[in-house]
Design brief:
Layout: H1 3-9, H2 23-40, E1 45-47, E2 69-76, H3 80-96, E3 100-104, E4 121-130, H4 144-147, H5 156-166, E5 177-182, E6 185-190, H6 196-211, E7 217-218
Parallel strand pairs: 6-7
Antiparallel strand pairs: 1-2, 2-4, 3-4, 5-6
Length: 219
């Protein structure tokens, strides 16, 4: 699976199979986490076979069932955009490995998630991980005119970037962002609302994949 295919096929999944993640995939995930933490300055940690955060032993909790694995996204204060950007990088990597994920801000037992948190750090969000009972469903997308200044004569790379950004997960599917372009310079702003700064990082990562980083610069 290419990363573009991962963007297209990845959907939020809340119901998981009772199937452990294979050791080979765990090694690959840990290697990716180590690389991301080194590059970003984040302190992402993975928890496996830990049933308490999502109450996996109960029938359902916050629409979740069977979830025993997750990433805890920890970082210093003010790193909301990095949390979204690098968290999405990890989410798509997991999708390429054949795993399913879901960004989770509220519906988990915060007292049961106990990552290592250093000075000046905090737990921003968690990402559920595992083998989904289904592959999830696509969400309703806004029209490109609602999230960008895309014109009929826009270059193909910009069009592809906006399409990839629209496929990004955002809090409550708000899609509160807007892209503008001047030549090869692109800017994107977050709207008002909960977690929109994290959403901004997520959509920027997707846009870069769709557009190709070699084709533009962030303004």
């Amino acid at each position: 699976m290419t990363i573009l295919e991962a963007i297209e096929q990845r959907h939020s999944v809340r119901q998981y199979k009772e199937k452990p993640i294979e050791a080979e995939l765990v090694t690959k995930l840990n290697t990716e986490i180590e690389a991301i933490n080194k590059e970003s300055g984040l302190h992402i940690q993975m928890f496996l076979n830990e049933p308490e955060a999502f109450q996996a032993n109960k029938t359902s909790y916050g629409q979740f069932s069977g979830c025993r694995n997750y990433f805890a996204i920890v970082g210093k204060k003010g790193m909301d955009e990095e949390v979204g950007y690098y968290g999405q990088k990890l989410v798509l990597f997991a999708q390429q490995l054949g795993l399913n994920t879901c960004w989770v801000a509220m519906t988990y037992k915060k007292g049961k998630v106990t990552p290592q948190i250093g000075g000046g750090e905090k737990l921003y969000i968690v990402i559920a991980l595992g083998y989904g009972q289904t592959q999830g469903e696509s969400h309703k997308l806004k029209d490109v005119s609602a999230v960008s200044d895309l014109a009929a004569d826009a270059p193909e790379w910009y069009r592809n970037g906006i399409r990839a950004a629209l496929l990004a997960p955002t809090a409550i599917n708000q899609q509160k962002f807007r892209f503008t372009r001047s030549g090869t310079n692109v800017s994107v702003k977050a709207g008002m609302g909960f977690y929109t700064k994290i959403d901004l990082g997520i959509v920027k990562y997707n846009f870069e994949i769709g557009a190709g980083k070699e084709n533009f610069s962030w303004a």
